[in-house]
Each structure stands twice: as C-alpha cells, then as structure tokens.
Amino acid sequence: MAKIIYIESNNKLHTIDVQNGLTVMEGAVQNNITGIDADCGGSMACATCHVYVKEEWFDKLPKKEDGEEDMLDMVFEPKKNSRLSCQLIVSDELDGLIVSTPSKQG
Ligand code: FES
Questions:
Q1: CA–CA separation, 56 vs 76, rounded Å?
Q2: Residue 86 CA: which ligand 1 atom is closest?
Q3: What are 51-69's pLDDT values in tens digits?
Q4: Quick check: 68 and 44 in contact, CB under 8 A?
Q5: How far is CA 13 from the centre of its chain?
Q6: Which atom of ligand 1 is nearest the CA belonging to 40?
Q7: Cα of 32 to ligand 1 centre, how many Å?
Q8: How far apart are the C-alpha atoms of 106 and 96, rounded to whole Å?
Q9: Cα–Cα distance list, 6 to 22, 65, 67 (Å)
Q10: What are 70-101's pLDDT values in tens digits?
Q11: CA of 74 to the centre of ligand 1 (A)
C-alpha cells in the first residue's frame, strides 16, 4: 500500500491509498480523479493517463520502455517529467509519490 498524491489541473489535491500491484492510473480511475481517463485500459495505446511526476520522484521510478516514450511523444505539452500512469506500478517504495494531471486532461 502506498499513498499516492494526485493533483488535478485545478490544483485540487487527493491523497489516495493505492494497493501494491495496481498502477497509478488504476488508483486514479477507481477514485474518480479528474484528468486520468485511461481510455485504453492500460495497454499503452491512448496516453489519456499522462501525468507529470514531481521532480524529486522522477529518478526513483522504473525507466520508460520504448512504447511509453513513443506515446509520450504524441501527448499535448510533454515535459521531461512526463509519464504514463498506467506504466507505474504501485509498491511501498512509491509511498508519497506526487503526480499532477495536465490541464488539457482536466
Ligand atoms: S491508459 Fe492508455 S496509455 Fe495509459
């Protein structure tokens, strides 16, 4: 279990306990976080789960696979701390992770 902090584009903050093994995207969808639609259900085909990871967390996450990088090339306003939340699997190590949703997904 890890506390994941989601910040919506309107700065509304949600602290959610997400079970280990779920993805950061699934934690958002199950708790109706605005801005993470996850249209493809986590198969890395839609990029509607795009989030910005708080800088201090970025290097602690598993590296991106090529497919994730390709999808992130297509998102609106990608940044160097962009990730697909469906590729971030929750574990105790991610306790306190902070992600924010891009304004275009709000
Ligand atoms: S849910 Fe579609 S790419 Fe993540």
A1: 23
A2: 4
A3: 999 999 999 999 999 899 9
A4: yes
A5: 14
A6: 2
A7: 16
A8: 22
A9: 15, 23, 24
A10: 999 999 999 999 999 999 999 999 999 999 99
A11: 12
